[in-house]
């Protein structure tokens, strides 16, 4: 009980201290008003807080300042001594919702929406305050509701490798447009690291592949459970960095994250596609794979990861880029001899930044072998793998000979658009080689 009361008192004192200006007199007066009496024990605490740099003071949350209060020696001594002398909160001082904090240096040009409080957020999203409350209930509480009351639909898809399942958490129609607005009018205005090529405007998987064309050695790494590894705490810290208050940052975070309900985790476990560690990641609030806002948030939360891996690549005389969870370093022959050490360095950096490598997918490819980046051959120029080119050519040939309907063996809803997309992709990678595919495509007779 005393420890709980000590924490609650520290939170009340922190709330009072943040309710006004950072001056000696103002801090002392608000502590006195909160406790209803003089507080001589707080003199050193007040002096320490008044000396904090203004930027650091503005970034303090109520909880982080309460931690500072609890670490104060005089405050600890009060709780170790006579219970009659312990501080007792007489009134709570609330800070008026002021303007947003300025974004950090380097992001001052990003015109993010001005949302100083919850009412402003609800108005910007064009939903009533009650609707915002319903969408921002605590994740631990929300995940215990029935599947019919969840804000997401859950789909299990087999992985490309055939081993295990991939969980898609797709927002319900009432949440999807709100996340799209967050993406278009907030997240897309914050630039990710230059090495991030996935889900970034004016960058693509082709840029990711072109960065590694013609290199002597190519090292590929894979991040495990990329979206599920990005926890809600990291997303909230990002929104706080952009200048939003604790309350608004928390609400924005809950709008963009989810905690997977237990029935879905049980279904995945029974299907044999989920380890214990992966279940724990999904049980905590995380970025849902399937939400429009997740990729942009993941890129922004991986900024330090990209920054450190770019520094590692520069020190090795190598190139670095990332497409979602696919990390690639390429460069001179020296990389092959140091491949194990580089893998250890990359793994350590990823772990320190809150991610994890899937070491089973690490590859070291020299120029004498087929080097691929996201299924694009990059030995001499971006190109389709030979097997994929030959398979597509054979499909087009059979479409000409026997008609296109018989070749749709995977049951694509729009077989014509699917096939045309594959031909266009081949032409984008290697226009000269793709002319043969285009000639076959032109000869296909499609039913009216």
Topology:
Elements: H1 2-17, H2 24-35, H3 43-50, H4 54-59, H5 62-71, H6 73-80, H7 118-125, H8 129-135, H9 139-142, E1 152-158, E2 165-171, H10 176-185, H11 205-210, E3 217-222, H12 226-229, H13 232-241, H14 246-256, H15 262-270, H16 276-283, H17 294-301, H18 303-315, E4 319-323, E5 326-331, H19 334-337, H20 339-352, E6 363-366, E7 372-373, E8 376-377, H21 386-402, H22 415-429, H23 435-443
Antiparallel strand pairs: 1-2, 3-5, 3-6, 4-5, 7-8
Key traits:
elongated, 448 residues, four-stranded antiparallel sheet, single chain, alpha+beta, two-stranded antiparallel sheet
Describe the protein in words.
It is a single chain. With 448 residues, the protein is an alpha+beta fold. It is built from 23 helices and eight strands. It has helices spanning 2-17, 24-35, 43-50, 54-59, 62-71, 73-80, 118-125, 129-135, 139-142, 176-185, 205-210, 226-229, 232-241, 246-256, 262-270, 276-283, 294-301, 303-315, 334-337, 339-352, 386-402, 415-429, 435-443; strands at 152-158, 165-171, 217-222, 319-323, 326-331, 363-366, 372-373, 376-377. The termini are far apart.
List unreliable stretches of 5+ residues.
Answer: none
Mean pLDDT: 91
Helix content bin: 40-55%
| Helical run tally | 23
Biggest sheet descriptor? 4 strands, antiparallel
What's the count of strands? Answer: 8
Describe the oligomeric state of these chains in a short phrase.
single chain
Shape estimate: elongated
Distance between the termini: 78 Å
- The radius of gyration is 28 Å
Structural class: alpha+beta
Q: How are the strands of the biggest sheet laid out side by side?
A: 4-5-3-6
